[in-house]
Amino acid sequence: MYLTRFRINTARTEARRLLSSPHRLHGAVNMAFPEPPARDGEGPRVLWRLDQAPGGRVDLLVSSPGRPDFTHLVEQAGWPSLGEQGWTTFAYGEFLDALAEDDVWAFRLTANPVHHIRRSQDPVGAPTKRAAHLTVHHQAGWLLKQQERAGFAVLRRSGSPVSAAGAVGTGEEAPRGTGGPAPHPAGERRTTVTVPTVEAGGSEEWGYQLVVHDRAPVRFGKPSGNPPHRASESGSDVRFTRATFDGRLRITDVAAFRRVLTHGLGKSKAYGCGLMTLAPVR
User: How many CB atoms lie within 10 A of CB 225?
Assistant: First the structure.
């Protein structure tokens, strides 16, 4: 496994085109591999995410089973005249192998939080439909529901029924063994979450070391050969809601957690969702 960080030159026209379309960027990421791994759910897959950093910097993070070659992306969206490689690739497998139960890490995850509903107007027995979670509480609740099967537990805030010392920090530092950014770039607007939870028949507010930010609907057209203004009529539009989660977690099941890091979490993995990265807790 490898984890790669590519800095995007946002002054270039082609870079802005890529950033405006997850479909184009998905294609550019796939072209870094002669034979991208199959997406059959059996083995690790290529995952990617865009991270905003201080000073208007945008980083592309890519987790992959094979080592990528982003020469084409440097030519499109980097600094090709500088003669430098333009990206940094880290050996991710060694880091994954060293993870252990009860390890505590800061994390970042960009995901597509969804649930399945049956509308009141739907006939009895009709299949449920996938719908996006739109509020901070529901999006945070979606993440907390993933914990047990995903092999981690988000830490509670100090003063909660089960507390963990320390607050989530800010700033940027290189994660040990991952090469990704720390979860909280300085100056970034974040929403601290206190998630209402029902237990033993009553309602109780539990605070978690978790913030939700970069919450936005995503909509883009996939090339279909139709004129641009007909994209929505052709039914080729892709729509989902994206949210980024920063916080602290404790590993509860190493095997399940490694699978999350290499296979992704949630839907829309091809379009920049599902990649979780870790950073040391200061």
Answer: 7
* Residue 273: Cβ-neighbour burial (10 angstroms; 0-12, 13-18, 19+): buried
Q: The whole model's pTM is what?
A: 0.74
Residue matched to tokens 């977690």: 249
Give the type of residue at 280: P
What is the Cα 240 distance to its own chain's centre?
A: 14
Residue 26 tokens, joined: 């998905």
Element (H, E) at 191: strand 191-199
Q: Are 53 and 59 in contact (CB under 8 A)?
A: yes
Contacts 24+ apart (CB under 8 A), 176-179: 176/95, 176/279, 176/280, 177/90, 177/92, 177/94, 177/95, 177/98, 178/3, 178/90, 178/92, 178/95, 178/277, 178/278, 178/279, 179/3, 179/4, 179/5, 179/88, 179/89, 179/90
Pairing status of strand 152-154 against strand 47-53: unpaired
Low-confidence ranges of the chain (pLDDT < 50): 161-205, 226-235
H/E run at residue 211: strand 202-221
